[in-house]
Design goal:
With 133 residues, the chain is mostly helical. The protein has 6 helices and no strands. The chain has a single domain (2-130), classed as TerB-like, CATH 1.10.3680. InterPro entries: TerB-like (IPR029024).
């Protein structure tokens, strides 16, 4: 997982932003909850859905490298896809965060989204193969 490359403080910000993003459409899905629980468990972060009103400007100050910012966007797009689609509210929030991170290059966002989508496709293909499909 690319989040391994982040500091613990950066992972906390990714988690807080992911909670905030999952709540963007006012419906945190079971898949999004599962992702958030796995992320918090993997990195020793307290699991809580109470971070929906964080100050994004303050939070992103911890993401002080381009690598950390790209990994953060990748994780946010990943949680957005967990409920089966990258909805409009989620897209708007991801683009807002990307702008605040100084990564408002549409080509870069598309590359990150493609990267995430291909990862989901790869997992799906593997599950189909292993289940005899």
């Amino acid at each position: 997982m690319f989040a391994d490359k982040l500091t613990q403080a950066q992972r906390q910000v990714v988690f807080d932003l992911a909670v905030n993003l999952a709540a963007a459409d006012n419906d945190v899905s079971e898949e999004e909850i599962q992702y958030l629980k796995q992320f918090s468990s993997a990195y020793g972060i307290e699991y809580s859905l109470e971070k929906t009103s964080i100050n994004i400007d303050d939070a992103i100050g911890v993401l002080d490298t381009k690598q950390a910012r790209i990994i953060t966007l990748q994780e946010l797009i990943k949680v957005s896809y967990k409920d089966g689609h990258f909805g409009e509210e989620e897209q708007d929030k991801v683009f807002l965060i990307a702008q605040k991170l100084g990564l408002n290059d549409p080509e870069l966002i598309i590359r990150i989204e493609t990267w995430v989508r291909q990862g989901f496709d790869w997992i799906y293909e593997g599950e189909q193969m292993l289940n005899g499909g």
